[in-house]
Fold this protein.
Amino acid sequence: MSTFEDRLWSELVDVHGDEMRFPPSGARRRRPALLTGTALAAVAAAAAVLVFTAGTTAPPAYAVTTNADGTVTVTLNDIVAITAVNAELARDGVAAKAIPITSDCPVHGFPNPMPAGTDPNTYTVTIDPRQIPAGYTAVVGVAQTPAGKIELAQAAFRSAIVPACFNVTPMVLVPRKP
């Protein structure tokens, strides 16, 4: 080395010698990595919880929504929600009622089938309370197939005679022998 380089080296060692001999400890370098790793793990855990709960949450059994135009939309995903639907319709003052369609119900009738829903496991119907005549109750008959499909039928009854259930099984009338 030249004299200049020797002097420069000596001065560098005198001024910064300790720093050159003892590099910064690894703890300082690892702390940001540790914090970043911990933050990433927390974010991953939160994302996993969101994905798990979003993927396994079943739709609510029913929903009753009052629309801005005065109509009421009823969505039914499970036949067991009929009681809750009826309670909410009554609370909202809507002259409508959902009743189960069962093969063992003593009340026979032939309600009008409603158009098929877009989703075979749920059905949404919109009721316009202004279209229900005074003294009548709009009735939505609800059946659930063994596959879980909700099937609906519509009818109207005088409010005093709304049945608790409905049977759409055809009745066979046998003539009496003379």
In short: The longest strand covers residues 136-144. Strands lie at 62-66, 72-76, 96-100, 112-113, 123-127, 136-144, 150-158.
